[in-house]
């Protein structure tokens, strides 16, 4: 058997050996069903196709999320993401609820608050990371998440308010259901290069509730894009995880624009 040497990347003088590991992170997400045509227009630059579902396949799923990375190979940082669920490039016309369950997440917005993860994200995976400022309301520690306390955050880029989200406490999900390993792909398009990044995650301390989030949009262009989807409107579901353990492998190029 031939040994395969793990790939390495040097970022700001630090050598990262793949896969990159996240050992401790806290997560808050909200899922919104939006107009599929509007979502497609927003990500047309990628060449990917949104995963359509619902009557006439007129809806698409958009996931807004905040991650607080605590113990990772990339350091500690906050990260906000706008993710649109898309079909894999080799099956662009898939659709329906079954296809949605296996769809990948196209990362459209990804502000962060630390320069190291910004450089690593853009260089290794082609993620559209930009620098931002975060204001957090309420603790997002594992104990607070497990305790079901209200949590909120604001994102500002270059002095312009992007959005604010406030999460109501959710109901705990049995650990046996939430802790199943999830294998997923994320997609990105940076400088015309479309990449797919495989990942694996295990969640613990998970809470869900219907709705459960209040979204306010600001004056930044990112906010205008979200408004074009019909947001804010009531989320289908919101969730939190007291911890997310995950790995990210090398990206592979799946297209060029």
UniProtKB/TrEMBL annotation:
The UniProt entry, under InterPro entries, shows: Acetoacetate_decarboxylase (IPR010451), ADC_dom_sf (IPR023375)
Q: Which Pfam families match?
A: ADC
Q: Which residues form a coiled coil?
A: none
GO: which molecular function terms?
lyase activity
Q: What's the protein called, per UniProt?
A: Acetoacetate decarboxylase
Organism of derivation: Mycolicibacterium duvalii
